[in-house]
Amino acid sequence: MPVMNKEMKNAAIQVLENEILVGGESVFKFEQDFAKYIGTDYAVSTNSGSSALLLTFNAINTKNGDNVVAPSATFIATVNGACLLGANPLFCEIGHDYVISSEKLEVMLNNNEVKFVIPVHLYGHPCDMSSIKDTAKKKKVIIIEDAAQAHGAQHMNMKVGSFGEAAIFSFYPTKNMTVGGDGGMITTNNKKIYESALKMRDVGRKTKHTHDKIGYTLRLNSVNASIGKIQLKYLDTWNEKRRKIASRYQKKLVGVGDLILPPDDETHDKSVYHMYVIRTKKRNLLGTWLLKNGVSTGVHYPLPVHKQPAYSKYRNFVENNLTFTDEWSRTVLSIPIHPNLDPHDQEFIINIVTRFYDERLYEQKEIQDEEKSWSARLT
Ligand SMILES: *Cc1c(COP(=O)(O)O)cnc(C)c1O
Predict the structure, then answer these.
(1) How far is CA 19 from CA 218, 223, 230, in A?
(2) Which of 14, 35, 96, 111 is deepest in the core (most CB within 10 A)?
(3) How far does residue 285's CA lie from ligand 1's centre (Å)?
């Protein structure tokens, strides 16, 4: 559950009583604060992260047949916007930090005519934007960052969302910050993208009654913006708490069973741990055992995008091999992480995980029987 304190609720009531509900002052204030926080000239709010992607790819003139490179190890929405506008997805392998591999990306850009690349800062872990920028620059490829899971994450002391030509964020209630419902944001230093997104989210409106584009209606409303503005003030504190929880997991779970823990090299990067994702060959059994003990886990994501039925018509274009992406999808398990996760609850989770291996609970018939119904939730 997202944090929704009195200050946030009061802000929403204020808007309901005193502001126009669409295009109110709160919207512009939230955008200003967000742009300042990320370190870009502009920010344009939208009614979802998916809408932000659609508006961004529309603004950079995505045409039928344009190749867009993205990881397949992500949420499907990463590529939907570009593909709805006619782009062809080329799925790139990830590295052992679960984000796009800059080496594999370079090979793809050498072998294909590519217009756009979408690095995804998955689980709040920043991509290696320095190498990605170098590679993209050589090939004149436009970078659009998917920072939907990474509000506040940093690479080389710069916030993600400030590296690409533009970036998108999501405020869906499970993300590191929300607006109390669906919402999204585009950040950019590019005035043309900014102006296009402003117009196209607002029915292609030039002046009140004149529309010089066939536009969409993808605005964030004033009530949600007022909540977002206050959530943003708390974001750094929440992210700091997530990092503390992650480091406790890191310390206590290292060397347990066959667990592979997330990367924790913080020399150049600051992850915001949107998820704490471990990997194990016994993923489904461990998930079953945890649920049996009242601990909910998640799988992000059981079906990589290139295996989604919606993307089956693009399979011809998947020319590189996504072996690690496939292994990733079979082995990842997201265990609880939340700014308000109680240290005792975390201790309990750690104990339950450790017992699973120490007492070889994966051999128990009961757990094995229950695994089927647990796994059924992954479709
Ligand atoms: C949540 C998410 C999106 C889409 O955002 P919505 O607000 O749900 O439309 C896009 N990409 C990634 C990686 C996400 O996690």
Answers:
(1) 19, 9, 17
(2) 35
(3) 28
